[in-house]
Every structure is written in structure tokens, then in C-alpha cells.
Design brief:
Layout: H1 8-15, H2 19-46, H3 52-75, H4 87-113
Length: 114
């Protein structure tokens, strides 16, 4: 059963049980945080760009980023026992976000060639 709340048990689970787990958890949190901030800023900037080619280039980069995040979860986060139950759900989320960008690319491609 997953621990919910802000108790000592939850805090100890988020720290990791070994130094290797602690390093992977901190690296993963930093990577995800930087990616979210970076994508948020870029989305705001791209929203004002009218160039379809640039928007397609940006969407391809977002697909790549989500695929890389899913790969990170498969190769590193699944090895951490505290995250063992969460990583499959997060991979599904990463794949869903990547597919939303793929649908955007397909829609733009159809508009271009229809």
C-alpha cells in the first residue's frame, strides 16, 4: 500500500534506502524539474510564433524529450525500490504526452498536403 501524507515514513521513502538510490532520486527530480521549466518557457514562447515549420520542429523536440523521459524511467527509476510501483504509470503518461505531439504533427502534415 502506498504511503500518503507527510509523515516520517513518507519522508524516509522519498530519500531512498541506499546512497545509490538517493543519488538516482535526486538526479531524477532535478532532471524532471528542469525539463518542466524548460518546456513551460518554450511553450509560452512558441505560442506567439506563427511559423508552422518552427512549430513542427518544436513538436518533434517535445516528442523526443518525452521518449527520453520514458527511457530514463525504464532504465533508472525502475531500479529504485521506492519507485517500483510508480514508474509504469509515469511511462504511460510520458507516452501519452508524446502521442499528443505526434497527433499535432500529423494534423499539420495533413493540412500542408491536403
Amino acid at each position: 500500500m502506498a504511503a500518503v501524507g507527510l509523515g516520517k515514513e513518507t519522508a524516509s521513502k522519498l530519500l531512498g534506502s541506499t546512497p545509490h538510490d538517493q543519488l538516482l532520486i535526486k538526479t531524477s527530480e532535478a532532471l524532471v524539474g528542469v525539463c518542466y521549466v524548460f518546456i513551460g518557457i518554450l511553450l509560452f514562447m512558441v505560442a506567439f510564433v506563427k511559423d508552422k515549420d518552427f512549430q513542427n520542429f518544436f513538436a518533434k523536440g517535445c516528442v523526443l524529450m518525452h521518449v527520453l523521459m520514458a527511457a530514463w524511467r525504464v532504465f533508472f527509476e525502475r531500479k529504485i525500490e521506492d519507485f517500483a510501483r510508480d514508474w509504469p504509470r509515469q511511462i504511460v503518461g510520458d507516452c501519452a504526452l508524446a502521442m499528443s505531439w505526434v497527433f499535432f504533427l500529423v494534423r499539420n502534415w495533413r493540412e500542408k498536403y491536403d
